[in-house]
Amino acid sequence: QVVLFFGFVRRYKGLHVLLDAMQSVSRRLPRAKLIVAGECYGSDVEYRRKLDALPAGVARWDSDFIPDDRVPVYFGAADVVVQPYLSATQSGVAQIAHYFERPLIVTDVGGLPEFVADAKTGLVVRRNDPGALAEAIIRFFEEGLAARFVPHLHAARRMFAWEPFFETIELLVEELKTTRRKRRR
User: Fold this and answer.
1) CB atoms within 10 A of CB 19
2) Contact 173, 166 (CB under 8 A)
3) Which of 148, 172, 171, 168 is nearest to 160 (CA)?
4) Most CB within 10 Å of its CB: which of 24, 65, 94, 130?
5) Which three-class secondary structure state does DSSP give residue 184?
6) Residue 157 has what pLDDT?
């Protein structure tokens, strides 16, 4: 039962909300673990205090920059990727999660919900609500949602891959060529 928070730690990404949620998660799911992977921009004092308040062994923070060759290790270990953002426009982490076919639990801000087919590839919760976030994480594990999400995650991976994008461009180019030929006649 591994929860992953991945990427640069910045206030707007809501790690503090996830750390608060993990208090409830750890009481209901004592085997649940949180991995925070990414370096902090700004002070890490609040995060370290919240990490220290969690029961021993519940969370670890790999606070260095994560090089590309280590990314598969983190996503491979994760059962679910959590993005408790307070604000956002989009997220590269969500795209990485799709690539590795990992479910997402995201907040209802910016473009994040667009990456999640709610209850198919992940769950969407209210922003800045540790209780709602904890309930979503608990639900994910207690209901065994990962197995139900796998077929949808496979389709989502294809949807966000480059191949469909290039195929669409090729179709558009062919349509334009055909239209131009017809106009010349």
Assistant:
1) 25
2) no
3) 168
4) 94
5) helix
6) 61
